[in-house]
Amino acid sequence: MNYFRIFIVVLIIKACILKLYIKYMVSIRCKMAVKAVLDSMGLHYKSVELGEIDIKEDLTQEQLAELKEQLLVSSLLLMDDQKAMLIEKIKNVIIEMVHYEDEWPNVNFSDYLREKLHHDYAYMASLFSEVAGITIEHFIIAHKIEKVKELLLYDELTLTEISYKLHYSSVAHLSNQFKKVTGLTPSYFKNLKEYKKRIHLEEIGSCF
C-alpha cells in the first residue's frame, strides 16, 4: 500500500513539472542568471540546464509574461514555438557535447542526436538549415574550432592530443579545418595570441 502511495505521489509530481525552453542559454553564467530570475520571482524549480528549465508549478499568463521580461534583461528569450524549441535543443546538445563533455559519443553524431532528441535526423537537419541558416555539420565545426582555440590558449594539450580529444582523424585534418574557418594555422593563432598577451601586459606595466 505504501509503495502504491509513493507511486501516485511520483506521478503527481511529474505531472506538475512545467518544462520551459530558453534561447541563448549556452553557458554556466546564463544558468546562474536564470536561477537568479527564478529565485527573485519566488518560483520553485527542479532543474536548470542549458536551454531548458523544469518548474515545479504551473505558471499564470502574468507570471510567464514577467518571466519572459526578466529573462530579456539578460538577453535570454523564453520560447514558445515548437520548431524553434527543437532548434535550440539541437544547438544545446552540440554545445554541451563539444564544450562540456569529457568524452565524445562512440556513435555517429546523427545517431547520437536522434537518440537524444527522439526525432528523425533528416527532419532535424532540414529544419535546422531552414531556420538557423546553417547546416548542423557547419554548426558543429564552428564550435569545434572555438574549442580548439580555447585548448590552444590553455596550452595544456598538444595539437595531437587536441585532435584526438575532438575526434579529428588526424592533426592535418584539424589544421586544415582550422585554417579554412579562421584563415590561420593553429600554431600561428597560438603565437599571435601569446604576442598580443605580452603586448597587453607591457602596456599595463607602462602605466605605473
Walk me through the structure.
With about 210 residues, the chain is an alpha+beta fold. It has two domains: about 1-80, 2-Layer Sandwich (Alpha-Beta Plaits), CATH 3.30.70; about 140-205, Arc Repressor Mutant, subunit A, CATH 1.10.10.60. The protein has ten helices and four strands. It has a four-stranded antiparallel sheet with strand order 2-3-1-4, sandwiched between helices. Strand 2 and strand 3 form a beta hairpin. Helix 4 (about 80-100) crosses helix 6 (about 120-130), helix 4 runs parallel beside helix 7 (about 135-155) and helix 7 (about 135-155) crosses helix 9 (about 170-180). It starts with a helix and ends with a helix.
| CATH topology label of the largest domain | Alpha-Beta Plaits
Helix percentage range:
55-70%
Termini separation comes to 76 Å
Under the CATH scheme, which architecture of the largest domain would be assigned? 2-Layer Sandwich
Kindly provide the radius of gyration, computed on alpha-carbon positions and rounded to a whole number of angstroms. 22 Å
Unreliable runs, pLDDT <50, ≥5 residues? 1-15, 198-208
Q: Report the total helices.
A: 10
Kindly estimate the percentage of residues that lie in beta strands according to DSSP: 5-15%
Outline of this structure?
The chain is α+β, with helices and mostly antiparallel strands. 66% of the residues lie in helices and 8% in strands.
Strand-helix topology:
Layout: H1 2-16, E1 18-23, H2 28-40, E2 45-49, E3 52-55, H3 61-73, E4 77-78, H4 82-99, H5 109-117, H6 121-132, H7 136-154, H8 159-165, H9 171-182, H10 186-205
Antiparallel strand pairs: 1-3, 1-4, 2-3
Helix pairs in contact: 4-6, 4-7, 7-9, 7-10
